[in-house]
Each structure stands twice: as C-alpha cells, then as structure tokens.
Specification:
6 helices, six-stranded mixed sheet, 11 strands, 216 residues, five-stranded mixed sheet
Length: 216
C-alpha cells in the first residue's frame, strides 16, 4: 500500500489524467489530494468529475483548498464573487458554462464535504500550513487555507507536514525535512506532483504532455 499525495491541481485535468496513468494507481493506494481543484487551469469541472469517479475505485481523501472556499463564498456574496472572478473564478466558472446554475449539485457537495486535514502514522496533510504548537485537529482556518509555507517549525506531533498552496516556481517540491510543499505550479509553467510520502519518490506531469520522476 502506498500513501500518495497530489499537490494543487488548479483545473489542470490533462495533467491529472496523465499523472494517474504515470503513477499507476493501485487498488490499495491511499490517494490524498491537497485542495485547489478549481482555478485558472482549463478544466476545473473535469478535475472534480475525475476525482468523483476515482472515488468509486480507490480510497481518495480530498482536502479543502482556499479556491474551493472562495467559490462557495462567491455564491452568496457579490463582493466575494467579484473578488473570486479576478482570482481564478472566471476560468473556473467558464469550465461549467456561464453561471453557477450549471454547476452540478454533486460538485457543490464535493466542495462542501472535503476534509480540513488528514493524518497517518508519520505524516499529516493540510492545504496550506499548520500552527506547530496546536493539535492537528484544532488548527485555525487562517493557517490551514491561507498561510504561506515560509520557514515552518516542526509540529508538536513530531509528524512530517505535507502541504501545497505556496507555489514552487522551480517546479520541484520543497523539502525542509519536517515539512514538504508539493504545489509545483501546475497551472503555470510548472508541474503537477504526486508524492509517495513513505519512500520520497515523486512523479510529475504537465499540460504540455511531459512527464518526469525523481526522489526527494
């Protein structure tokens, strides 16, 4: 069994489909996605459809990202809508058509019911960051969804943090030992990353059809 973490997808369905084939998801793999399914990539709708289908055959743990929060808030507030449209929302909505009415109910449920955190024996998973002195189950939203990676201190649990959110424009994961950031700029000029957290092996694909693999 492998524990596989996938960084911020940002609407990049082609990269995600390639990554699934390249990694070769196995029946007993646990696949943890770190949030930001919707954004500036070309097919946010397709990304969520893909993950909903993947759940039928594999154990998939989906975490909440700040872009899902913004999309949910945009439905109820014109101020939030205007902000979101200028921050990836225009591209996200275009993948559905032209209005929120075209977003399937299953997609709203997906965004509402995703997890805040996930833990294994040696690792914990969040979208953005974590307060090193607070229990994983009691993390503040500001840390979980918005705080940049910076220079995180080791968590009190002794577990290694795996996160996304902070773009690594180098296209390579940032590993500081007790914390690993795998947002490798999928929607830009970088890569979508899948990390085997126990071995440190990782695989990457991009929207141009390229792929590569390495080890932390």
């Amino acid at each position: 069994m492998r524990t596989l973490a996938i960084g911020d997808i940002h609407g990049c369905l082609h990269s995600l489909e390639q990554l699934a084939r390249y990694v070769g998801f196995q029946e007993d793999d646990v696949i943890i996605t770190l949030g930001d399914y919707v954004d500036r990539g070309p097919d946010s709708k397709g990304v969520i459809d893909f993950l909903l289908n993947l759940r039928k055959t594999h154990e998939v743990v989906t975490l909440r990202g700040n872009h899902e929060i913004m999309m949910l808030e945009a439905v109820h507030s014109e101020t939030c809508l205007n902000s979101w449209l200028g921050f990836g929302g225009k591209e996200s909505l275009a993948s559905y058509g032209s209005s929120f009415d075209e977003v399937p109910e299953a997609h709203w449920e997906f965004m509402k019911k995703v997890n805040a955190t996930h833990e294994t024996e040696n690792h914990f998973f969040v979208h953005a960051n974590a307060d090193p002195s607070a229990p994983i189950y009691a993390q503040p939203d500001e840390m979980l969804y918005w705080q940049r990676f910076g220079k995180p201190r080791p968590h009190v649990s002794g577990k290694t943090m795996v996160c996304g959110h902070t773009i690594q424009r180098s296209g390579e994961p940032l590993n500081v030992g007790h914390a690993i950031c795998i947002d490798t700029w999928a929607y830009g000029k970088g890569w979508l990353t899948c990390l085997d957290v126990e071995t440190g092996n990782y695989w990457q694909t991009n929207e141009q059809g390229q792929r590569r693999a390495a080890k932390l």
